[in-house]
Amino acid sequence: MYNILCVDDTSANLLILEALFDEYKDKYNIFQADGGYKALEILLSNHIDLILLDVMMPDIDGFETAKIIKQNRETKDIPIIFLTAKKDDETIEKAFTLGVDYLSKPYNEVELLSRVENHIKLRAYHKQLDEQLLFSQAILDAQPNIVFVRDDEKILSVNRSFLYFFHIDSLDEFRSQHQCVSELFMEYENFFSLSVLNEGKRWVGEILHHKDRDYNVLLMDISNFEPKAFRININKIDNTEKFVVTLTDITSITTKSKQFEVKATHDTLTGIYNRNKFNEYMQEYYQRFNRYKEDICFAIFDIDFFKKVNDTYGHQIGDETLITFAKTIDENIRITDVFARWGGEEFTLIMPNTTIENGFQVVDNLRKLIQNTRFKQIGHKTCSVGLTSFKDGDVIESIVARADEALYEAKETGRNKVVVK
User: What's the Cα-to-Cα distance from 414 to each of 39, 373, 385, 418, 419, rounded to whole Å?
Assistant: First the structure.
């Protein structure tokens, strides 16, 4: 039995939710709160598995309520889904910033039930993995660990596991490529990286200052281009300003779900969404279009003459080109847009709440931005774009085919342009 807390200042909305879950009494137990403060009181005295939270409430709004919940050690991992009539970009951005799911009113009941079930299952699985982490630590400590000694400025010495993992022959070789191991810590939920530090703070000092906390980091294993998880431990050498840093591999037991999640949703090379995840978003926006008839644009980008890059400079420079291209686009689109690697040198973009005229302006600006970007070793590069919008009578295949036709025309008529179909 899972406990769900429904928070809304409108009693009719609470009754609707209660009726929705009434069919699942054997699975879900419903708690109700007519405001943020009441919700917090319930959380203090009851075990809650998921929260359905309204945004606009008279006492404290949903954002502040969610913020308090996420800051509390006992409640921070409880999944929250905003149910709100607000659909503006600021509301959606705030929700994602808080780590909260979002569903606009009027919501699809099947979608709501599906999200509730998925959140509860994911939380239960993560809890199981966290319990495994405690048990497995003693076992993993007996295995060969990555160990290095450093002072406040640089790494002084490393062990064989360090060299083996980074596929280098010496510390000097590592220093020629990187200033510090910490710059390779990947950003991901619940893992430590430099992005969590305040300006001027050192990562070693941060971890030593919180000896009571457990810190895990993700590092890319370049032998198979998959992330590995490590428990990080730092000890100061007596009477010196030097530190022994130990990285214990905990990947195989404790990070399977996280590893699979990254691999399943993101492109390994560029770090943006992969085709599988993009297809999920495409399906979601297609359903939204059919229901609300909002303006949605879809574009396919293709790097012009990319094959020549690989043939002339090699695949490493080709990979650098793809990374730079993806990063440039990703940093210059809205948070509500969905950008992904479609395959090879092709990338796709969904722009919700965007007319075809505005969509053209957006992608043409991105095309110009790419044209003016300097790529490592090869200099400047251009791209061609096929653009279309969702239309009545469309299926997903017809939308993609129309954008693909537009892209083909752009490439056949000179490249470095946007064609609309």
Answer: 60, 20, 12, 11, 11
Q: What is the pLDDT of residue 256?
A: 55
Q: Please state the separation of Cα 203 from the chain's center in Å.
A: 23
Integer Cα distance of 107 and 339 in angstroms: 25
Give exposure, 247-257, as e/b (b: 16+ Cβ within 10 Å): bbbbbebbbee
How does pLDDT run across 7-17, given as a tens digit for each residue? 998 888 999 88
Q: Give yes or no for a cis peptide into 352 (omega within 30° of 0).
A: no
> Considering only 169-173, 262-266, 370-374, which range has the smallest mean pLDDT?
262-266
Q: Which residues of the chain form CATH 3.30.70.270? A: 266-420
Q: What is the mean pLDDT of residues 71-92?
A: 85
Residue type, 63: F
Q: Enumerate helices (H) and strands (E) in the chain, giving the number of each.
A: 15, 17
Region label for 400, one of left (φ > 0), alpha (ψ between -120 and 50) or beta (otherwise): alpha
Fold (topology level) of 143-262: Beta-Lactamase (3.30.450)
Look up the CATH architecture of domain 266-420.
2-Layer Sandwich (3.30)
Residues 256 and 230: beta-carbon distance below 8 Å? no
CATH superfamily of 2-134: Response regulator (3.40.50.2300)
pTM recorded for the entire structure: 0.42
